Model the fold of this input.
Amino acid sequence: MYQFIVRRILLAIPTLLVVTFIVFSMIRLDPESVVAARLGEGYDTNSPAADAVREEYGLNNPFYIEYVRYLGDLLTGDWGRSAISFKPVLEEMGPKIAVTLELSILAVIFAILIGVPIGVYSAMRQDRWPDYVLRGLAIFGLSVPGFLIATVVLALSAYYLDWIPPINYTGITENPWSNFQQMVLPAFILSLATAAQVMRYSRTMMLDVLRQDYIRTAWAKGLRERVVIFRHALKNALLPVVTVLGLSMALLVGGTVIFEGIFNLPGLGSWLVFSVIQRDFAPVQGATLFFALAVVLINLIVDISYTVLDPRARR
Amino acid sequence: MAEVATAGSIGLPQERGRSVGARFLGFIWTLARKKPLGFFGLIVLLAMVIVALFPGVFATHAPEVNAGERFQKYCLGPVDTPLCPTIREEDPLLPRGGRVVEGDPSIPLGTDQLGRDIYSRLVWGTRVAMYVGLGAVFISSLIALTIGVLTAYFGGKVDTVLQRLVDAVMALPPLVVLVSLPTLIGGWDIDGPLPLDNPGITNFKLVIILGILGGASGSRVIRAAVIGVRSSQYLDAAVVLGASHMRIMLRHIIPNIFGPLMVQATIALGGIIITEAALSYLGLGDTDPRHPSWGQMLQLAANSASTQPLQVIWPGIAIALAVFSFNMLGDALRDLLDPRLRGARGSFG
Done:
């Protein structure tokens, strides 16, 4: 098992290198636009100011030298400086990561709380009407994008209920209860697509397990349905659901970009969009890199936890 | 004498006697009989392609012009019920009462804040959705096929190196890349910087970027499918007959993974349409007023939600219908075409 974990971590290193290289290259595809964004249209290309900007973003040297320097900077915590707030990117990013992380974790919890019980129930009533209704709902959840549901809910509640999401964000340390009130609706809607996936997958897995011999034995012993389902079947059925959660994380992380905008949450995603509109390059690079690193890390954790949880995968 | 090695000439069972067209029609018939929802998805797809090809025939107005009066119609039911709300605040853009039930029949769904016909914009928006969706799916299928077949066929070092690249591209959330990349590249014209409110991305660039991102994840599916057929006896037979690598890949592998390829493409289509809509919703898509996007319309409707809440319904229905139909078609194709899943338990349809 340890051999597998070590191998898996080692395999993540080249992936990380390629990811950093892609993010590093983005700014170099059109270097002069970076200078133009800072100095405005019609700047003097030979002026010391233009040279200073090029120096700051490391556009003067060959890319392989700059790439090594970039990696070094990343590792020593120098992720560049925002051209608007003049703060270091990493320092500004900290509190925003906390918001995005809270939103994602809440969404994952909701996805499990909604998806797993519905999936298990649907499997228990296979091909009867509750199953059909719940599967139909899952297909709906997969087909209607979350930001569309959020928009419709907010539009209707703004008119009929006189409620719009609060403009001021309350941090979790300031007032946990009002923070939760603010987070619960975006996290719930964000979780729906993932919940639908979890539901479909846990249903399939449950059906698979329910057909196995040891479950027939449990029925034959005269155990009640509750015991058969919860004590015998559930544990084995839910292991693979971890994989689905991992796979849908990239989607979920991408979803925070749009949800934070809709619900006025000062997270990493809304910061990214803001920086894009302001053409502030260091935060754009920093946030993009962070999102990618998060996805790589999540996939790593999922793979490893799967190995730890499932003895069959250790071979 | 390369032609000697065709399957037909050495007497392998090949579907002889039925032309490609007849087999295609037969498949459509099977789809209609066994998977009515998938068939419904196919009909919606075809209808949307036709609308996208000839928007001028279906639309009553051009998408970017004021359709005449600035009036809004947003009743979904009887007057003075929640389905036909009155306007609360005085809106200078609206005629008195703020509620127009009878109107110009060429403006069946009313107009938006700028007086543009919502119905016509939905029709032209279909062209944007289909152009981006089908274009990106085409490019991503080509990329997925190339990477998937090469890595699975040759394996070894080619596989290891290309799969790390695929890993890295898959780690980038599509929406994040789409938001940030156009700023860093072509956000600027040759003549100089674009205004700040114009992200400068065109639908063509969108197709390319989405195609590349989709190609990476699609290549995983193709790779798995090729590994599935790699050890087949007909490939051994082709090798024995002296077929080149190129010939084996083109004539023997690719035709046999056509099913998974179609399934992957159809399932990806819905996701790409969602991503495009999300990007335009953020105001970071193609902002050319002649290319109205459903996402852009949704954003516009959301901004006026406090006065006209029901305007969000129309682009919402368009997005949901498209994505639902393509997902259903993809699910049906997977059940019918993918032999690994044939007869598998828990099929959804």
Summary: Chain A has a mean pLDDT of 82. Chain A touches chain B through 69 residues (CB under 8 Å).
